[in-house]
Write a structure and sequence with these properties.
Blueprint (H helix, E strand, L loop, with lengths): L2 H18 L6 H13 L16 H17 L3 H22 L16 E3 L4 E3 L11 H17 L2 H31 L5 H6 L11 H6 L1
Antiparallel strand pairs: 1-2
Helix pairs in contact: 1-2, 1-4, 1-5, 2-4, 3-4, 5-6
Bound molecules: zinc ion.
Protein name: Metal-dependent hydrolase
Organism: Natronorubrum halalkaliphilum
Keywords: Hydrolase, Membrane, Transmembrane, Transmembrane helix
């Protein structure tokens, strides 16, 4: 799923929290915590994507602990922390509902959706949303954006509108992007290819070693 879909999911929960308990924490703080939590796991894109910063079990545990803390001592900090971890946990669960880790995720050949550090294994992709940038992904992102657009205003609302526009653009270029990648990546010098994550390379196994010989 797109990073923006994850962000909108977190913001939907933030919109609910702000509506139910507006007096506890400033709406913007709840929204920003959800945006950060929804986006943060995907910062591992240049590293071991969906493993380095994806912690389905640990984020959920932290969300539970922070949630209890926020109920007992409802302050800006405890609510923001609960919101952050809840959005991050939701992100990881949503990744398992999407496609696998592969150059062309619509081909459905990967069995790796998100890494579960607690159990030490990859969770398989359910492919309810076939791949990031799929039409159904954009549909989900748009639906999840609605509560945030209704509840929040000012810069938060502006940011959500920008993210929605980015989602539409990404969906439009998702497959052409792979065509460009297939053409461009094999032309790059081996030194550059060596630092790129292996999963984004449309090159047969072993071809990279042959090229760098
Ligand atoms: Zn992710």
């Amino acid at each position: 799923m797109m990073a923006t879909t994850h962000v909108f999911a977190g913001v939907s929960v933030a919109a609910l929290v702000t509506t139910v308990a507006p007096e506890v924490t400033p709406a913007a703080v709840v929204a920003v915590a959800a945006i950060c939590g929804g986006f943060a796991p995907d910062l591992d894109l240049p590293a071991d994507h969906r493993k380095t910063l994806h912690f389905p079990v640990y984020y959920a545990g932290c969300a539970l602990a922070a949630g209890v803390a926020a109920l007992v001592v409802p302050t800006t900090v405890t609510v923001a922390l609960a919101m952050f971890f809840l959005a991050a946990a939701l992100h990881c669960v949503m990744d398992a509902a999407g496609g696998g880790l592969e150059f062309k995720p619509w081909e459905g050949t990967s069995e790796q959706a998100v890494y579960d550090h607690y159990h030490g294994r990859w969770i398989r992709p359910r492919r309810w949303i076939r791949y990031d940038g799929a039409p159904e992904d954009l549909l989900l992102a748009s639906a999840l954006a609605v509560p945030g657009l209704i509840v929040f205003d000012g810069p938060v609302r502006d940011l959500l509108v920008v993210l929605l526009v980015v989602s539409v653009g990404y969906t439009a270029i998702r497959k052409p992007l792979v065509v460009v990648g297939e053409w461009l990546l094999p032309k790059l010098p081996p030194r550059v290819l060596a630092v790129l994550p292996e999963r984004i390379l449309p090159i047969e196994d072993g071809a990279l070693e042959e090229r760098s010989d």
